[in-house]
């Protein structure tokens, strides 16, 4: 998930008198090849009376040439920029066949073009010895670069050095210490002596505090930090320029923003120029501040939001106690072994015994039974301790698909609602509470789809048999009203045939009453098992869901939910409510209901859940129109259909003029639906992402890549657009799953491009809207 940061950098020279300031060259604008997206940039110079000319040097770096017509007592240069910190994989590149292993030789054309980056300094004794100690046995190029870069970071101690200029490689090796620019220049010279073109890079380095502390090794910076930095870039045929940070021993990542790249350090200096001799006081200040960040599973709520959640939890607890509800909420969370650890029985820690982690039928997945708690404070304690113990035992809550999409553990998280004893169960004492929950859950599909699991589908009642709703209404109407006694087994006899999955199994129903009044292994315990939830990736996301349920129970205990008729959603269920916009709007109605009942549940407490369930694919803007692509839902049974693996995404536009523009995907117009907000429309796109190669009936065709065009009907041309690929656009065939969230995110981001619109005149065919699926364009249907 991206984080927008504001970087401020002030360089200030104060002179002892008014002096002549010669032309100054400033190299403090991000270079064109920066992989980190710079959203805005400003350069402010004092004295205000000056001339500025922007130009590019022979290497393509941006230069600001400043001329001061009058004498000045100071020179102050302030840079302010906003950058989007989004993970990318620094190893995501291909190499030409002749560059697969080091050593390799450039082609004649490459040698001619790279000549300035192959020039070397004279050999010196210590440098020669260090160079001779580098193993030249042919190995894969990436492995060689990783080893040499790490070795240099270990051999050269980092030194904060304020003196101008760059040390010679010999001096850096003799002293075994140097600043970042000294290590970078040493690595440049080593690479050139090894026959690899290299250049010196000056830039900004941004380091942000990690959301979670690492279990092994350093966790990185303890505060958000930025500074001027230097590193090396090497040229690899097929990949281009690749950054190596000899100070850290890592490849350059999203925190490295290049400003100037040059064959020599002197031509990459941030500021250069002459001034009249004088006394100078120099100051330098840099800061970085997070100004916007997407909610994410490692940072689901801020501390103020968590404090508000705690306060509401305590208040609803007091209400439940005053109403004598006797509600307890337990759960059966599941965790998955990460990095090959945890498959064996986890070790005990804290107050929770390791024996509570039970093996499931899925290899490497463990389940924990958390008994119902009537106290919000106890639930918070139990859940937070459990998640931390799982982390210490290297059990995680996320799995990743081969293309980088994230999912839960695959085994879900059932919630158990009831009382400490069967006679305390609020559902047996007030069966109308169960009726309220079932009816409300049905009438608000967001409660199903916002929290549902991708790999563990549990159907709603209206996703099973055709007459289920009709029969369910009759059965619910026969439940006792508040205050009336509930005969033993009545709930089970009435609802058991209806609360089932498509195969008729009550154990796989969304509302499982087997342990409420049924024949389950824990019969007569008065527990309602609410199923179909994806395993929440973070403890506070888990607790947000539990808090939502506590509030709903308190609300229905006071005012039962008893609609005369359950909503017949029909095809809207899988047309409208597969799209995140309508799920979000429906969920907002749920929160409005709770607010009216006196429970102010903040929608931002569930922002991370929305981002987890419907991750953003990418965005694009042109001519005042903003377009966003976001993953949508696809019903489980249809995902692996005979026509291939189906996926769905949502397109959302703002600033739209429907009389002039059309939105198209692969040359087909989209059926945009107005949201009620001026200029805002949404649509769904259903497409074949994968075609099974082993299927003898497969056509071999898919619908990807998807090219989205904003078409101006006045000019019959695309104003611009973007592309989304279901697989790596360069043909990389991943053989293994992502090792962590960063690699997963980089795989996702690599499949979206803010370029690639359809060229030339573009005349769209007439829009065809399906009566049953008016919000969705199914790419499988012929135009």
Brief descriptors of the model:
3 domains; Creatine Kinase, Chain A, domain 2; five-stranded antiparallel beta sheet; seven-stranded mixed beta sheet; single chain; alpha+beta; C8orf32 fold
Structure in a nutshell:
With 783 residues, the chain is an alpha+beta fold. It is built from 19 helices and 40 strands.
Description:
This is Transglutaminase family protein. Residues 172-248 form the Transglutaminase-like domain. Strands 29, 30, 31, 32, 35, 36 and 40 form a 7-stranded mixed beta sheet that branches. Strands 14-13-12-11-15 form a 5-stranded antiparallel beta sheet, covered by helices on one side. A 5-stranded antiparallel beta sheet has the order 22-18-26-28-27. It is elongated. With 783 residues, it is α+β, with helices and mostly antiparallel strands. 24% of the residues lie in helices and 28% in strands. Helix 2 packs across helix 4 (169-175) and helix 7 (376-392) runs antiparallel to helix 14. The two termini are 36 Å apart. The protein has 19 helices and 40 strands. The chain folds into 3 domains: 1-290, Roll (C8orf32 fold), CATH 3.10.620.30; 324-610, Creatine Kinase, Chain A, domain 2; 615-778, no CATH class.
């Amino acid at each position: 998930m991206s984080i927008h940061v504001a970087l401020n950098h002030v360089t200030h020279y104060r002179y002892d008198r008014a002096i002549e300031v010669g032309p100054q060259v400033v190299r403090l604008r991000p270079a064109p090849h920066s992989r980190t997206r710079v959203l805005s940039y400003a350069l402010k110079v004092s004295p205000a009376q000056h001339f500025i000319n922007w130009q590019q040097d022979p290497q393509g770096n941006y230069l600001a040439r400043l001329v001061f017509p009058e004498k000045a007592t100071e020179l102050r240069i302030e840079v302010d920029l906003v950058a989007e910190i989004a993970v990318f994989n620094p190893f995501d590149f291909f190499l030409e066949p002749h560059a697969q292993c080091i050593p390799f030789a450039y082609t004649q054309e490459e040698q001619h073009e790279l000549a300035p980056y192959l020039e070397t300094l004279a050999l010196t004794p210590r440098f020669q010895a260090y160079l001779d100690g580098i193993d030249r046995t042919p190995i894969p190029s990436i492995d060689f670069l990783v080893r040499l870069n790490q070795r240099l970071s270990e051999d050269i101690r980092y030194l904060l050095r304020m003196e101008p200029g760059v040390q010679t490689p010999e001096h850096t090796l003799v002293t075994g210490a140097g600043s970042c620019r000294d290590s970078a220049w040493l690595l440049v010279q080593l690479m050139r002596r090894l026959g690899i073109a290299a250049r010196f890079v000056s830039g900004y380095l941004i380091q942000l505090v990690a959301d979670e502390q690492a279990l092994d090794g350093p966790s990185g910076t303890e505060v958000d930090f930025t500074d001027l930095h230097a590193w090396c870039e090497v040229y690899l045929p097929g990949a281009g320029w690749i950054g190596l940070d000899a100070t850290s021993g890592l490849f350059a990542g999203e925190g490295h923003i290049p400003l100037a790249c040059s064959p020599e350090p002197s031509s990459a200096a941030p500021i250069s120029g002459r001034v009249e001799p004088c006394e100078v006081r120099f100051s330098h200040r840099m800061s970085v501040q997070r100004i916007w960040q997407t909610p994410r599973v490692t940072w689901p709520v801020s501390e103020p939001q968590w404090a508000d959640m705690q306060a509401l939890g305590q208040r609803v607890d007091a209400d439940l106690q005053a109403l004598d509800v006797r509600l307890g909420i337990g759960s059966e969370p599941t965790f998955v072994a990460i990095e090959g650890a945890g498959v064996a029985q986890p070790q005990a820690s804290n107050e929770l015994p390791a024996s509570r982690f039970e093996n499931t039928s899925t290899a490497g997945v463990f389940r924990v039974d958390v008994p119902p708690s009537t106290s919000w404070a106890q639930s918070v304690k139990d859940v937070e301790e459990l998640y931390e113990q799982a982390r210490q035992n290297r059990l995680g809550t996320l799995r990743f698909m081969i293309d980088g999409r994230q999912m839960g553990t695959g085994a879900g998280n059932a919630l158990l609602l009831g009382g400490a004893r069967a006679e305390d169960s609020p559902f047996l004492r007030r069966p109308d509470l169960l009726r309220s929950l079932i009816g409300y859950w049905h009438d608000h599909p967001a409660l199903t789809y916002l929290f549902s699991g991708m790999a563990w589908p549990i159907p709603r009642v209206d996703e099973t048999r055709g007459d289920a709703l009709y029969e369910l209404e009759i059965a619910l109407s026969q439940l006792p009203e508040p205050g009336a006694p509930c005969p033993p087994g009545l709930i089970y006899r009435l609802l058991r045939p209806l609360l089932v999955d498509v195969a008729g199994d009550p154990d796989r129903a969304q509302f499982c009453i087997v342990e409420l009044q049924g024949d389950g292994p824990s019969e007569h315990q008065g527990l309602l098992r609410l199923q179909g939830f994806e395993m929440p990736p973070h403890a506070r996301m888990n607790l947000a869901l539990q808090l939502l349920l506590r509030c709903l129970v308190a609300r229905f205990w006071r005012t039962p939910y008893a609609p005369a008729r359950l909503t017949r959603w029909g095809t809207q269920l899988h047309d409208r409510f597969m799209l995140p916009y309508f799920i979000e709007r429906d969920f907002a109605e749920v929160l409005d209901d709770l607010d009216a009942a006196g429970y102010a549940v903040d929608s931002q407490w569930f922002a991370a859940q929305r981002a987890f369930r419907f991750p953003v694919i990418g965005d694009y803007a042109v001519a005042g129109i903003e377009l966003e692509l976001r993953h949508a839902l696809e019903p489980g049974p249809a995902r692996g259909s005979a026509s291939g693996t189906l996926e769905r995404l949502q397109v959302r536009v703002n600033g739209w003029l429907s009389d002039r523009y059309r939105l198209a995907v692969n040359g087909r117009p989209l059926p945009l639906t107005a949201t009620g907000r001026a200029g805002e429309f949404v649509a769904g796109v259903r497409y074949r992402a994968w075609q099974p190669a082993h299927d003898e009936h497969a056509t071999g065709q898919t619908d990807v890549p998807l090219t989205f065009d904003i078409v101006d009907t006045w000019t019959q041309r695309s104003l611009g657009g973007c592309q989304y690929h279901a697989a790596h656009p360069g043909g990389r065939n991943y053989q293994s799953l992502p090792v962590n969230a960063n690699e997963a995110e980089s795989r996702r981001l690599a499949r979206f491009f803010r370029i690639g619109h359809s060229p030339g005149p573009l005349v769209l065919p007439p829009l065809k809207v399906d009566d049953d699926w008016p919000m969705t364009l199914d790419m499988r249907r012929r135009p």
